[in-house]
Design a protein that fits this description.
It holds the Pfam family Aminotran_3. This is Diaminobutyrate--2-oxoglutarate transaminase. The chain has 428 residues and is α/β, with parallel strands linked by helices. Helices cover 39% and strands 16% of the residues. The strands form four sheets. Strands 4-12-11-10-7-5-6 form a seven-stranded mixed β-sheet. Strands 1-2-3-15 form a four-stranded mixed β-sheet. Strands 13-14-17-16 form a four-stranded antiparallel β-sheet. A hairpin with a 5-residue loop joins strand 8 and strand 9 (224-225).
Length: 428
């Protein structure tokens, strides 16, 4: 078959997406090809072209595509006729995941959290957290932050900042109040006196909140990094005023910023933590809501979901925790070193390119463009050169990097080289 014939066949085969799939699809528009196989940090299309993946399933593939250890655990489980769908029934797979979570994550950090399986996605975890906070406190209002992203279902969307996503709800999004995230005003130190004042002021119009929900690093919001001292001040305020603190670690948890939980650096202990994406290890749907033991006021069946018992995901989650988060783990140090490598490369790039800066923590790093159009152009050129990276931020002005935590030094060098060349080309 000639090249022209192959192209014609590909176009014909792909017409099904245009004809049948909803216009809501997004990533397929920025990466106009059809993928077929993947391994480690690489994903391949049906024409055999290889792409270095610095997107990693929006952070759901911290251990890379088809990680061999996790894959073998999954294959063994499936071929052994292990339970696939279990609702919230007791299964061996769930027991072993809970044991691994306790041994490798919770106990070493002195965290006495109960674990809820709310459903398969991050927004399910957030919905459960918001509902629980309201049930525990008897209050309705939730404090969220500018540029936050917490999910696309109505409760999670009410505490999300993006106007385009909020508009999709089609109804008023109520019982939530946005407040400025750290550095929102460009470097002004925030000590939260304003928050306490409006809480005490009967004329402020602010209902006493049940909880505050926060991301320590806002990924979709543009890789906005909260300072440790800001997070500590927020936690202290919540403790003083009997307000529950929810940390959304859906994208930034499971080692993305270095430590297993992104809030560890600040030395805080949230009342509630939401986890999804890479908690499943292999990219399979799984979400957890963790909360302090005294907050477990649910009655049986009060919050449920058909697919909260995804046992194959329990298996790969356990394998990931055992393999990467045991007592001898080197992953946090490796992630910090790789993050520093990206920062150094971005420092060099920003120094020689007008209108470019950067920010991030660990292996979530953002290249920030004064001209928002430049970010999408850089991602487009990078795609042509074999690199997947997405944009984020309120104006899509940030090229956000989320490579697998298992990415090699050579792969990092290659990807950063492609990105640098694309940036110089766009900004020159």
């Amino acid at each position: 078959m000639t090249t022209a014939e192959k192209a014609a066949k590909t176009t014909a085969d792909n017409s099904i997406f245009e004809n049948l799939e909803s216009e809501v699809r997004s990533y397929s528009r920025g990466w106009p090809t059809t993928f077929t196989t993947a391994s480690g940090s690489w994903i391949r299309d049906e024409n055999g072209k290889e792409f270095l993946d610095f997107f990693a399933g929006a952070g759901a593939l911290n251990y890379g595509h088809n990680n061999p250890v996790l894959k073998q655990a999954l294959v063994d489980y499936i071929t052994g006729d292990g339970i696939t769908h279990g609702l919230d029934m007791n299964t061996v797979a769930k027991r072993e995941l809970l044991e691994s979570l306790q041994t490798n994550v919770l106990a070493p950090r002195g965290l006495d959290y109960k674990v809820q399986f709310p459903g398969p996605t991050g927004t399910n975890s957030v919905e459960a957290a918001l509902k629980l906070a309201r049930k525990v406190t008897g209050r309705e209002s939730i404090i969220s932050f500018t540029n936050a992203f917490h999910g696309m279902t109505l409760g999670a969307l009410s505490v999300t900042g993006n106007s385009m996503k909020r508009a999709g709800a089609g109804i008023p999004l109520v019982h939530a109040t946005p407040m400025p995230f750290d550095n929102y005003f460009g470097g002004v130190t925030e000590d939260f006196q304003w928050f306490e004042r409006v809480l005490d002021d009967s004329g402020s119009g602010l209902n006493r909140p049940a909880a505050v929900i926060v991301e320590t690093v806002q990924g979709e919001g543009g890789v906005n990094v909260a300072r440790a001292e800001w997070l500590r001040a927020l936690a202290e305020l919540c403790a003083r005023r009997d307000i529950l603190l929810i940390v959304d670690d859906v994208q930034m948890g499971c080692g993305r910023t270095g430590n297993f939980f992104s809030f560890e650096e600040a030395g805080i202990v949230p009342d509630i933590v939401t986890l999804s994406k890479s908690i499943g290890g292999y990219g399979m749907p799984l979400a957890l809501t963790l909360f302090k033991r005294e907050l477990d006021v649910w009655t049986p069946g009060e919050h449920n979901g058909t697919f909260r018992g995804n046992n194959p995901a329990f298996v790969t989650a356990k394998a990931a925790l055992d393999t990467y988060w045991g007592p001898d783990t080197t992953l946090p140090a490796e992630t910090a070193a790789k993050g520093a490598k990206i920062e150094a490369a971005f420092d060099e790039l920003a120094a020689k390119t007008t209108g470019v800066s950067h920010r991030g923590r660990g292996l979530v790093q953002g290249l920030v463009f004064e001209d928002p159009d430049h970010a999408s152009k850089v991602c487009s050129i990078a795609f042509d050169e074999g690199l997947l990276a997405e944009t984020s931020g309120p104006s899509d002005e940030v090229v956000k990097l989320l490579p697998p935590l298992t990415v090699t030094e050579d792969e990092l060098d290659r990807g950063l080289g492609i990105l640098a060349e694309a940036t110089v080309k766009v900004c020159s």
